C-alpha cells in the first residue's frame, strides 16, 4: 500500500515491499520476509527499545570508563591507557564504547523496520549482521537516527537519503584506506620500519590523530560544499550558455545538464615500468604522479574527478581553464626526472555528474583523444579548438583527420602554449 505522499515503498533484494524510513515505529521492530516472524516479536521489539533507552541512560553515568564516555566530536578523546594499545582499544575509541547492541535493538530505537535499517547500513558500507551479533554501541544510536529523521521531516526522500548515505560510505572508505596507507608508508620511509612494524606502531599513534583528522575532515567538507554550490548551482547556467558557441544543438551531449572542460592525462609506458619495479617503488611513482596532478589541477581551478593507476580525469568550468591545466600537466611530466612523459587530451562539452563521477560522450571523446596523442602532446577536438581560437595564450595546430572508435572521423588539434605564464605553482 502506498504511503500518504503517494511515493512507492522501498523494494529490497527480495523484490517485495517494505516499510519506509519515514514509517515511524518506536514501539515495535518490524521485519521483512527474510527475518523470522513470531507472535511475540512485537513485544520483543518493545522490550528491545526499552533496553536501549535504559542503556542510553546508563551511558550517561559512564564517566568511570573513559573509553565508554568517548565522544565522536574532535578534541574529546579518551585518555591513552598505560598498556600497549590494541585494535580493540581503537575500536572503542572510534565507536564510543563497547558493542553491546544487536541490530533489532538499534532498529527499534531508530523507529524503523529492520528491513529499512539494513538498507541504510548497506548504503554506508557495513557488513551483514545476524540477530545474535553484538554489532553496535550506545554512542551510535543518535547518528543512525539522522537519515530516518530527515525522511520523516520531508527534507529528503528515501531515494535521496540512501544515495547520500552511499556517497558518505564510499568516500570515507576510500579516504580511510588512503590515510592509513599514507601513515604507514611515512613510518617505513622516515623511521626505517618494516611494513608490519609500521602497521602495529600506527595503533599507538591513532589516539593522538583521531581528533585533528576529524577536524580537518569537517573543515574540508565545508569548503568543498561551499565550492560545489557555486560550481554546480550558481554558475551552472553560465557554463551551459557559454557552451552553445560553435554548436548547433544536434550534438550527442546536447541534453546533458553541465558544461565542462574534461581532461585526461595518461602516463606513457606505465605498464612496462610497473613490471620492472618492486611494490614500494611503484607505490612511490603512483603517489608522485597523483600529487603532481592534484596540485596542478587545484591551482588551475579544476577538480580532480578520479585517478585510475596511471591516468587522471579532471574537469574545469571553462575551456581556457581546462586547456591551461592540460598544458601544465604535459609540461610538468616532460620536465620530471623520475616520472615518464604523459599524453593529455581535453574536450569542452556537456556531461552528466552522478555518484562523484562524470559521464557522457564528452568524457569518452577525451579518453579516445588521449589514446592517440603522442608522448608529451596535448590534443583537443575541433569544437574545443573553436572555443579557444583567438586566445593568445594558446597555439592550435590542426592534424590529419583520424578514425576513432565510437565517433567515426574526428579532427584532432594539437594544443601548445602561447603567451602568458600559464599555471604557476608556488
UniProtKB/TrEMBL annotation:
Q: Where is this region: Disordered?
A: 1-83
InterPro entries (UniProt xref): A/G_cyclase, Nucleotide_cyclase
Q: Which residues cross the membrane?
A: none
Any idea where the Guanylate cyclase domain is?
261-370
Q: Example GO biological process term?
A: cyclic nucleotide biosynthetic process
Bias (Basic and acidic residues) occurs at: 13-22, 47-56
Query: Compositionally biased, Acidic residues: which spans?
Result: 34-45
Q: Where is the composition biased (Basic residues)?
A: 70-83
Query: A Gene Ontology MF term for this entry?
Result: adenylate cyclase activity
Q: What is this protein called?
A: Cyclase
Tell me which species this is from.
Sinomonas atrocyanea
Amino acid at each position: 500500500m502506498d504511503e500518504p505522499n503517494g511515493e512507492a515503498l522501498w523494494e529490497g533484494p527480495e523484490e517485495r515491499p517494505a516499510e519506509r524510513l519515514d514509517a515511524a515505529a518506536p514501539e515495535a521492530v518490524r521485519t521483512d520476509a527474510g527475518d523470522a516472524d513470531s507472535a511475540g516479536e512485537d513485544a520483543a521489539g518493545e522490550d528491545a527499545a526499552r533496553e536501549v533507552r535504559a542503556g542510553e541512560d546508563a551511558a550517561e553515568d559512564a564517566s568511570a570508563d573513559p573509553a565508554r564516555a568517548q565522544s565522536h566530536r574532535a578534541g574529546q578523546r579518551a585518555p591513552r591507557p598505560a598498556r600497549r594499545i590494541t585494535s580493540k582499544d581503537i575500536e572503542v575509541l572510534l565507536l564510543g564504547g563497547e558493542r553491546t547492541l544487536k541490530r533489532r535493538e538499534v532498529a527499534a530505537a531508530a523507529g524503523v523496520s529492520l528491513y529499512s535499517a539494513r538498507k541504510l547500513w548497506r548504503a554506508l558500507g557495513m557488513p551483514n549482521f545476524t540477530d545474535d551479533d553484538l554489532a553496535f554501541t550506545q554512542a551510535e544510536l543518535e547518528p543512525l537516527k539522522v537519515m530516518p529523521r530527515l525522511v520523516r521531516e520531508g527534507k529528503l526522500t528515501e531515494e535521496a537519503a540512501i544515495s547520500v548515505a552511499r556517497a558518505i560510505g564510499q568516500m570515507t572508505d576510500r579516504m580511510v584506506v588512503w590515510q592509513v596507507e599514507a601513515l604507514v608508508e611515512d613510518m617505513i620511509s622516515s623511521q626505517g620500519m618494516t611494513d608490519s612494524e609500521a602497521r602495529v606502531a600506527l595503533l599507538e599513534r591513532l589516539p593522538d590523530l583521531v581528533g585533528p583528522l576529524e577536524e580537518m575532515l569537517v573543515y574540508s567538507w565545508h569548503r568543498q560544499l561551499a565550492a560545489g554550490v557555486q560550481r554546480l548551482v550558481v554558475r551552472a547556467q553560465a557554463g551551459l550558455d557559454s557552451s552553445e558557441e560553435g554548436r548547433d544543438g544536434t550534438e550527442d551531449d546536447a541534453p546533458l545538464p553541465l558544461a565542462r572542460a574534461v581532461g585526461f592525462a595518461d602516463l606513457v609506458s606505465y605498464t612496462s615500468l610497473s613490471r620492472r619495479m618492486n611494490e614500494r617503488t611503484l607505490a612511490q611513482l603512483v603517489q608522485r604522479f597523483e600529487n603532481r596532478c592534484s596540485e596542478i589541477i587545484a591551482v588551475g581551478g579544476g577538480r580532480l574527478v578520479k585517478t585510475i593507476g596511471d591516468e587522471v580525469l579532471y574537469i574545469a568550468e571553462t575551456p581556457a581553464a581546462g586547456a591551461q591545466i592540460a598544458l601544465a600537466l604535459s609540461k610538468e611530466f616532460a620536465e620530471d626526472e623520475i616520472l615518464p612523459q604523459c599524453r593529455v587530451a581535453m574536450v569542452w562539452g556537456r556531461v552528466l555528474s552522478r555518484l562523484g563521477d562524470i559521464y557522457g560522450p564528452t568524457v569518452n571523446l577525451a579518453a579516445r583523444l588521449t589514446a592517440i596523442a603522442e608522448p608529451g602532446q596535448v590534443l583537443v577536438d575541433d569544437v574545443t579548438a573553436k572555443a579557444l581560437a583567438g586566445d593568445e595564450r594558446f597555439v592550435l595546430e590542426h592534424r590529419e583527420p583520424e578514425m576513432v572508435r565510437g565517433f567515426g572521423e574526428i579532427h584532432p588539434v594539437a594544443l601548445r602554449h602561447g603567451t602568458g605564464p600559464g599555471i604557476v605553482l608556488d
